[in-house]
Specification:
mainly alpha
């Protein structure tokens, strides 16, 4: 039986200076590769445009989650106080929106946080298994020389 070689998942390269990294990233992008990452211990502005980095939709997902959480928290309280179980406490009106502010804020933050975590997992394709054929020595060990 012939031993099989593991499927090539990716290639990792190391560069001595940022200009070489940016030049290699541009050549890789021009060659048609689109799933490219570049890692550096400090930000390199040219690298983001060299690899064709695009903005993420995560802030929009978090914003929508926050708006839905806030509206859901407010209308949940409105429904409970005005429709389901109206109880006159201290002569205040049933729809006393200032009393709804703390819960509305908490629901906004809670649903926005859940949307951020779930959106990140979905956008990062976290459910996809990482191939076992990846081998990295110095990079994974954090070798800084």
């Amino acid at each position: 039986m012939k031993p099989t070689q593991p499927k090539l998942y990716g290639i990792m390269a190391e560069f001595d200076n940022p200009s070489d990294l940016v030049a290699a990233a541009r050549q890789t992008h021009e060659a048609g590769y689109r799933r490219v990452n570049g890692y550096s211990p400090y930000p390199i502005e040219e690298l983001t445009e060299a690899i064709g980095f695009t903005r993420t939709t995560l802030p929009l997902i978090v914003l929508i989650g926050g708006i839905l959480g806030g509206l859901g928290g407010f209308f949940m309280q409105y429904w409970m106080e005005v429709i389901d179980y109206p109880l006159n406490v201290g002569g205040k009106p049933f729809n006393s929106w200032p009393a709804f502010i703390p819960i509305t804020f908490e629901c906004t933050v809670l649903v926005a946080a859940f949307a951020a975590v779930l959106g990140m997992l979905v956008l990062n394709k976290a459910a996809a298994a990482i191939p076992s054929g990846i081998q990295c020595t110095e990079f994974c060990a954090g070798d800084t020389r």
